[in-house]
């Protein structure tokens, strides 16, 4: 089992790595703080490597992006991505977005995943940050650079889509959860496998688009069906889905040059299916899929060409 996350103590005691630090392979450790200077801004991420890491083999990497007004420690806790990633044989990194001032106590951060976030993030280049993070980890650990994946919740899901659009040479597949964005004139350099998770009762990011009763900010969200249709086009996927039904949820699979899948959970709000979220306490329903475990399994089926 992985070590628990202790932001005040354990992470301070863990090895701290900076962009200017030597790039020799680091010894295996459980939880590590990475500090990088990107575009003149100091950026931070929390890294977890398997406790029994074998330097003779290469490991896949999953990058997990927290939700808007959330933070990486909360996302790690709510998604259980460190523990599930280790069990599936992944190195896992969860970066921190740009801090924003809001009328709530706590550490609140946002990703520059689209034009509506540029001002709040002071123009942070989060794609460049992600690329620098991948390079840093590859310099320290035996990373399989053909198997790097992105997942995220809400605003972090939008970030996963942005990486698929702007960094398809580095990201093998994505699994966005409870958030989407239109391509806005961008297009991936190749078909990118997508597995999207969403709830039918999402009040922050409504499945049908627009603004929900709990939406944050004035932006109107694009309908998830429109996001899926756009990616079917990018991935040369079929217009008709193969639908697999389960108690309380279904998976729509559009086969093509790269598969596009939608996991739709009946009655679920704004959260990570099978986990919780960055906004409200949540008790997983028995009928919910385990989105993180499913995403890791999906990632295991895909690599860069």
Descriptive account of the structure:
By secondary structure, the protein is of the alpha/beta class. It has a single domain (10-275, 282-299), classed as Alpha/Beta hydrolase fold, catalytic domain (Rossmann fold, 3-Layer(aba) Sandwich), CATH 3.40.50. The chain is 22% helix and 24% strand. The protein contains seven helices and 13 strands. The chain has an eleven-stranded mixed β-sheet with strand order 1-2-3-5-4-8-9-10-13-12-11, sandwiched between helices. The chain has a two-stranded antiparallel ribbon with strand order 6-7. Strand 2 (31-38) and strand 3 (41-48) form a beta hairpin. The longest helix has 15 residues, at 126-140. It is globular. The protein starts with 9 loop residues before the first helix and ends in a 6-residue tail after the last helix.
Number of strands: 13
Compute the CA-based radius of gyration: 18 Å
CATH fold label: Rossmann fold
Principal-axis shape equals globular
Strand order of the largest sheet: 1-2-3-5-4-8-9-10-13-12-11
> Span from first to last CA?
33 Å
Count of separate DSSP helical elements: 7
The mean pLDDT is 88
The portion of residues forming beta strands comes to: 15-25%
Q: What would you call the structural class?
A: alpha/beta
CATH class: Alpha Beta
Whole-number count of domains: 1
**Named CATH architecture:** 3-Layer(aba) Sandwich
Q: Spell out the helices and strands N to C.
A: HEEEEHHEEEHEHEEHEEEH
Q: What can be said about the biggest beta sheet?
A: 11 strands, mixed
User: Which percent bin holds the helix content?
Assistant: 10-25%
Pick out the low-confidence regions. 1-29, 277-284
CATH superfamily: Alpha/Beta hydrolase fold, catalytic domain
């Amino acid at each position: 089992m992985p070590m628990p996350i202790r932001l005040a103590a354990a992470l301070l005691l863990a090895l701290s790595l900076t962009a200017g630090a030597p790039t020799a392979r680091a010894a295996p450790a459980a939880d590590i703080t990475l500090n990088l200077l990107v575009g003149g801004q100091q950026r931070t991420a929390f890294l977890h490597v398997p406790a029994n890491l074998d330097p003779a083999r290469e490991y896949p990497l999953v990058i997990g992006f927290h939700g808007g007004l959330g933070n990486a420690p909360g996302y790690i806790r709510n998604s259980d991505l460190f523990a599930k990633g280790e069990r599936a044989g992944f190195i896992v990194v969860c970066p921190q977005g740009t801090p924003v001032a809001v009328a709530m106590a706590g550490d609140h951060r946002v990703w520059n995943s689209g034009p509506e976030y540029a001002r709040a993030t002071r123009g942070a280049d989060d794609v460049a940050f992600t690329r620098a993070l991948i390079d840093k980890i590859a310099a320290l650990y035996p990373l399989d650079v053909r198997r790097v994946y992105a997942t995220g919740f809400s605003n972090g899901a939008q970030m996963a889509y942005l990486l698929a659009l702007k960094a398809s040479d580095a990201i093998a597949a994505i699994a966005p959860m409870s958030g989407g964005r239109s391509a806005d004139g961008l297009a991936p350099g190749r078909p990118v496998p997508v597995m999207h998770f969403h709830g039918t009762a999402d009040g922050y990011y409504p499945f049908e688009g627009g603004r929900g009763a709990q939406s944050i900010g004035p932006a109107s969200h694009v309908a998830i069906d429109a996001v899926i249709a756009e990616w079917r086009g990018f991935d040369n996927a079929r217009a008709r889905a193969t639908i697999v039904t389960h108690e309380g949820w279904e998976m729509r699979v559009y086969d093509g040059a790269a598969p596009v899948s939608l996991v739709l959970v009946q009655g679920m709000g704004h959260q990570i299916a099978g986990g919780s979220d960055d906004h409200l306490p949540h008790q997983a329903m028995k009928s919910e899929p385990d989105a993180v475990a499913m995403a890791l399994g999906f990632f295991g089926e895909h690599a860069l060409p």
